[in-house]
Amino acid sequence: MDYPTYPDKQPVLSLENVSYSYHTLSGETKALDGISFEVSPGEFLAIVGPSGCGKSTLLNLLAGMIRPVSGRITFHGKDLYEAVRQADIPQIGYMLQHDHLFGWRTIWENVTLGLELKNQMTGANLGYVSSLLEKYGLSEFKGCKPSQLSGGMRQRAALIRTLALNPEILLLDEPFSALDYQTRLSVSGDIGKIIRENNKTAILVTHNLSEAISLADRVIVLTKRPAKIKNMVDISLTITDSSPLGYRSAPEFNRYFNLLWEDLWDEKGIG
Amino acid sequence: MKKELVKQELPLSLGQINYLKTYRQHRLMIVMGRFLLLTGFLLLWEGSVALRLLDSFFFSSPLRIFSLFLEMTKDYVIWNHIGITLWETCISFLLVTLFSLLAAIGLILFPRAAEVLEPVLVILNALPKSALAPLIIVWLGTGMRTIIIAGMSVALFGSIINMYTGFSQVEEEKIKLIYTLGGNKKDTLTKVILPSSIPVIISNMKVNIGLCLVGVIIGEFLAAKEGLGYLIIYGSQIFKLDLLILSILILCVIAIVLYQLIHLLEKKWG
């Protein structure tokens, strides 16, 4: 298989032969088996795979929440699990499936939660958050409670909450899956744009092939559990406009879609 | 706010006017019905006693109870008894709220301890707490301290269990969010678990205030020289049914007032 390499840039993240297992009384479940890949700075990587194959486990490993059973994950060459614990400010942002904005806080109090937890409520940091809210159309809703916002606005607020700490890497765990189809299209477009404008490295886990193709520079296909890497596909679309539809109407789109679809179909379909 | 104002300025449609009219009539019927039920009951009671269908020695009568109340307010005796019972109830309620909050926080922070203690809490909660009152009297003697502890014993264990259950039902993902933003265990408590459990805490308080009142009355039955519980026992011992029923009626009022106070709290923060 042809693994793409980025010889000019040191990888931000690198996984070498990473495996992980869950233990319960009824036995051991192997979730990941010998996963290796590298992520370059500024890259947008999407991971697709059949339902329950271990994608979320992979994100938890990349967030430093859990430690691999064997193999190594490094962040700028250092052990990631240790690096996450030593960092004063989290360098890896994690966006969960649901926005989880706290109903008892205003939007402003929600998006500054990370700064509050880390005692970083400095003028410069708050100014940065303000500018993000301004730029992405939420500044007039600062004082609102989350329940007063639409699903798409809430998701943007959740992203700004993650960006507030200015992390180098963003992990996205199906962040659009709770939205209705129309909102999903426009929000995924928005969020892709925000991530690129802020020069973040991003890793997106998704079920949705079109989303993966239109957002990512590279797509990794995982096998069913225990997950191994089945294929890695570099995505390069010729686009005329950067709307969600623009990506989807690129001439290469269907070829990528069929390629990935066949890979997943081998694994007995997408869940 | 703005939207509501605009709505009121619009002329109401005929259908809306009719709806509001029917609604007001319905409310009036309900209030009238309740008023008739109360006055009917009092009239029936007073009438039955006056016609000697009921023995006033055993059943007292609304007028006799009312005149006893007026008499007892003249020398402030009744206010003293009410005050004592209220004070004991409020103190045991506050202590129960405080202790069960601290205990539930402890259990959520130390899940292993929670697992060990679970059967103990379940047994203590299942126990009919009034059975403990004589034991408390033997240990602590009679007096206000005993009564406050008797009041607490009725509510405390259930309250700990309820609060702990409420705390542990906070979504796992919300707690994970705090960790992803670099927070620690203490942050999960102060930023997620406690704020999201305020409705649970308040509805728990609503149950506790009633239970504390029950416990305080049981305590006063056994170990008091003052308070409404004492008046009830005293009234029954000297066959002064006016006094007994008056005390029960006052307890009804106290229970309603205390419950409504917490209900107001709930409306504001719940």
Question: Could you characterize the architecture of this molecule?
Answer:
- The complex is a heterodimer of chains A (271) and B (270).
- Chain A is of the alpha/beta class.
- Chain A has two domains: 195 residues, 3-Layer(aba) Sandwich (Rossmann fold); 69 residues, no CATH class.
- Chain A is 35% helix and 23% strand.
- Chain A contains ten helices and ten strands.
- Chain A has a six-stranded mixed beta sheet with strand order 6-7-8-3-9-10, sandwiched between helices.
- In chain A, α6 runs parallel beside α7.
- The N terminus of chain A is likely disordered.
- Chain B is mainly α.
- Chain B has two domains: 43 residues; 201 residues, MetI-like (MetI-like fold).
- Chain B contains 13 helices and no strands.
- In chain B, α5 packs across α11, α8 runs antiparallel to α11 and α11 runs parallel beside α12.
- Chain B is flat.
- Classes of the chains: A alpha/beta (271), B mainly alpha (270).
- At the A-B interface, α4 of A face α9 and α10 of B.
Task: List the keywords.
heterodimer, A: 271 residues, alpha/beta, Rossmann fold, 10 strands, 35% helix, globular, disordered N terminus, B: 270 residues, mainly alpha, MetI-like fold, 13 helices
